[in-house]
Structure formats: structure tokens, C-alpha cells
Specification:
This protein is mostly beta strands. The chain has four helices and 17 strands. The chain folds into two domains: 174 residues, Distorted Sandwich (Glucose Permease (Domain IIA)), CATH 2.70.70; 114 residues, Immunoglobulin-like, CATH 2.60.40.2550. The chain is globular and about 70 Å long. Bound molecules: zinc ion. The site of zinc ion (ZN) has 5 residues, from loops. The site of zinc ion has 5 residues, from loops.
Length: 311
């Protein structure tokens, strides 16, 4: 299968949740890890920001050739935590498409933007054909494509089709998935991933990050803030974000306490107010690390250059 989104894996999109391989009330992904939740029957491909989801990165593509069985296109785009569960009851998939393929396979695409579905039942689609756009319809709290693969009505995890129901394997990465080879490599199971990161001139909210609405810094900025949005954290993980000035001195550090339980996403920031005599010009560096079992599991280093003040 092809990647069902026109995004760049690990840069503009990430796997947020895999299929749940635990048949009881617990949840385990195909590697026996925590990147799923109870009864999750598909793969969630998250687009890094809402702004990106509305552009090419959020274009939904048919994973393989087939013909369209069903579509829905009239569900409003709302965030679940604002609208509530009742508002999406019976329409958890939101705007969606079901495509039938050869040999009893079906793919389903959920949470598309209202009015974005481009195909109708009965229509033939080719592999990679654009069929809709990622939105926020149905039971969703972030822009993503929920993608389900079924064979004769039974859910198949495209990352580990050979595993029996209820089975997971720590070395499952070695198993052959159903993705095209380059995609398989790009989607290799990760310890966690940085969704987005940057510098801003003041406090940062999740909405700012999602809409790419943070303001860049310049010599007049009253504050300097570094932020990192990260997904796929485990219990025990320690996140650390350090901001250093051009001479290497640490300006600010945010070291979060070890996580009590696994966490799907987190927004961390650190920063300082403008010094009384202004910002020294030069390169400022923010270093983000996730420490897991004493080792660095995720790292991102970003820099920004402060020009000299205008005369
Ligand atoms: Zn999902």
C-alpha cells in the first residue's frame, strides 16, 4: 500500500497511534509498546499542525486501487474536547470514505474536512489518487487521518499483518508490513517524535502552535521563548528543554518531572524576558531531549539568529 497522505513521514506527519493488539482492556501496539489505546482499530497519521493539514500535507490519498463503497461529507469540523462525545455519537469517523480493493480488502479513511470528499460511491480510484483532505470531523482532538485496513471484515494491522489476534512482538519491526518499501522504512517504529518546535516572542499556546501563529523574535521582542511539541512519550520519560545565548551560557531551562504514565502528546517551553540592555546579537540555541532509561531517546536542536539592533 501507499501512504494514504501526501505528507512527508517523520517531518510533516507522524504515526500517533497504532492498532491495539491487546484483546482485553489494556492497550498494546504491535511492538508491545504504548502507542495505541484500547480498541483502536486503525493507524492514526497525524499531520504536524492544523495549518499543514489544510495544505498539501493533509491531502488524503487512496492507499491502493479499488472502487468507492461509501462516503460521508457533511459532518462539521470541531474539536472533540470542545463539542463533546454526544455531538459525534454514531458518527465517530466523521467525514469518511470506504474503498474496496481486490481479494476482499477494504480501506477506510476518517476525520476528513467537511465538504472535502472528492469521490462518490461506485467511482473507481487509482493508488495515490487524492480523495479528500484531513479535517477535524468526528471523534478527533487533533488533525489526523484514521486509517483502517480490513480483510473480509476483520481488522488487519498494516504494520504487522502476520501477527495473530492479541499478539505483539518486541522485535516486530523485523516483520514485513504491507507498505511500499520506502514507506515501510520511513514509518519505522520510533521512540517518540517532535511534531513541531520553534522560537517565539512570548507565551505559546497549543492553538498558536497548531495554527503556526507564533511570532518570530527580533531585537524589539520583550521575551524569547523556545517551544517543542512532542508525541509518543512513555511513563518515566524526562523531557528537558534548554535555551542558551550566543556565548553558550544557559539562559533558561525547563526540566519536566518524570511522566507518571505514557502520554500521547506534550507541549514544553522555556524562555526569558528581554534583558534591560537588550538582546546580545548572535545565535541562540534551544536543545530538547527526552531521556528514557538514562539514554537520550529523542533529541532536537534548533537555533535562531538575533540581528544587531537597528540604529
Ligand atoms: Zn484513530
Amino acid at each position: 500500500m501507499r501512504l494514504p497522505l501526501a505528507c512527508e513521514p517523520d517531518r510533516t506527519c507522524f504515526v500517533q497511534h497504532y492498532v491495539d493488539h491487546d484483546t482485553s482492556q489494556g492497550a498494546r501496539d504491535y511492538t508491545c509498546g504504548s502507542r495505541t489505546y484500547d480498541k483502536h482499530d486503525g493507524t492514526d497519521f497525524r499531520v504536524a499542525t492544523r495549518a499543514l493539514a489544510a495544505r498539501e500535507s493533509g491531502m488524503v490519498l487512496a492507499a491502493a486501487a479499488g472502487h468507492v463503497l461509501r462516503t460521508r461529507n457533511d459532518v462539521p469540523d470541531v474539536l472533540l474536547n470542545e463539542a463533546g462525545r454526544a455531538a459525534v455519537a454514531g458518527r465517530e469517523c466523521g467525514n469518511g470514505i470506504v474503498v474496496a480493493h481486490a481479494d476482499g480488502y477494504e480501506t477506510q479513511y476518517c476525520h476528513l474536512a467537511q465538504g472535502s470528499v472528492r469521490v462518490v460511491p461506485g467511482e473507481r480510484v487509482t493508488a495515490g489518487q487524492p480523495i479528500g483532505q484531513v479535517g477535524l470531523s468526528g471523534a478527533t482532538e487533533f488533525p489526523h487521518l484514521h486509517f483502517t485496513l480490513r480483510h473480509e471484515g476483520k481488522v488487519i494491522d498494516p504494520f504487522s499483518p502476520a501477527l495473530a489476534p492479541g499478539e505483539c512482538r518486541i522485535d516486530a519491526e523485523a516483520l514485513d508490513g504491507l507498505w511500499e518499501k520506502p514507506i515501510q522504512a520511513a514509518l519505522a517504529y520510533k521512540a517518540g517524535a517532535v511534531l513541531s518546535a520553534g522560537f517565539a516572542d512570548g507565551p505559546v499556546t497549543r492553538a498558536d502552535v497548531e495554527m503556526e501563529a507564533t511570532r518570530a523574535i527580533d531585537p524589539t521582542s520583550k521575551a524569547m521563548v523556545a517551544f517543542v511539541s512532542v508525541i509518543g512519550l512513555d511513563a518515566g520519560d524526562v523531557q528537558r528543554l534548554t535555551l542558551t545565548r550566543p556565548d553558550g551560557r544557559v539562559l533558561a531551562e525547563n526540566r519536566a518531572p518524570p511522566l507518571v504514565r505514557s502520554r500521547a502528546e506534550s507541549l514544553l517551553f522555556t524562555g526569558i524576558k528581554r534583558p534591560p540592555d537588550g538582546w546580545p546579537s548572535g545565535t541562540y540555541t534551544a536543545t530538547f531531549q527526552v531521556l528514557r532509561a538514562g539514554a537520550v531517546a529523542v533529541e532536537r536542536v534548533l537555533t535562531t539568529t538575533m540581528p544587531p539592533p537597528a540604529r
